[in-house]
Design a protein that fits this description.
Hypothetical protein af1432, about 70% helix, about 0% strand
Length: about 200
């Protein structure tokens, strides 16, 4: 079964990186809780969670090689996304090429787990937020977003994106244009929700 196979592989990959393994399992447990709340397919969420960081320790060169080989818009991806985000694309490829996954409810959450995107599906939102707030994340923003997520997943998505953008801007990091687009989308969505209430 794919889940057992993935757990075995993760234990091998992370045998000297126990904190990363704890993070991945924390994302899985958090995603399953949200999945129950929002009536999602829990197996899909578990597989996406276990795969989302499968290539986290690929070198920059390895990521570039995978992106160049498998994505027709590779030049755009390499220019737009910094080296800390590229693993989302290589993990997406591993899910397809090594595990034969074709379900977009699994693949897209893997691809968009780092910065989100406009109009995410419930599966994408759950993995994105779970990655940000899983129990081993103890920084200020994750604690804040963890509380928000209990009542409003869209607001949690917005705050996570907004805080991440502000952090990277403050520290001189590269922010992809898609992150700004996602922030704008969720800001407008929340304004619409507030007007209806």
């Amino acid at each position: 079964m794919i889940i057992e196979e993935l757990l075995k592989r993760l234990n091998d990959i992370y045998k000297n990186k126990q904190n990363r393994l704890k993070h991945v399992l924390g994302v899985r447990d958090t995603a399953i809780k949200f999945g129950k709340k929002y009536n999602c397919n829990l197996k899909k969420l578990e597989i996406a969670s276990l795969l989302h960081d499968i290539t986290k320790y690929y070198s920059y060169e390895e990521n570039i090689k995978v992106v160049t080989k498998y994505f027709t818009n590779s030049e755009y991806i390499i220019k737009e996304y910094n080296e800390h985000i590229l693993h989302a694309y290589s993990a997406y490829v591993v899910a397809q090429s090594e595990y034969g996954i074709t379900d977009i409810d699994i693949l897209n959450p893997i691809m968009y787990h780092t910065i989100g995107r406009e109009a995410m599906t419930i599966y994408e939102k759950i993995i994105f937020v779970s990655d940000y707030i899983e129990p081993n994340r103890i920084y200020k923003s994750s604690i804040k977003v963890r509380k928000i997520a209990q009542d409003n997943l869209d607001l949690a998505v917005f705050v996570a994106i907004d805080d991440s953008i502000k952090y990277y801007e403050k520290n001189g990091g590269q922010v992809p244009s898609s992150a700004y687009q996602a922030r704008k989308y969720y800001n407008e969505l929340l304004e619409d929700q507030n007007e209806k209430n």
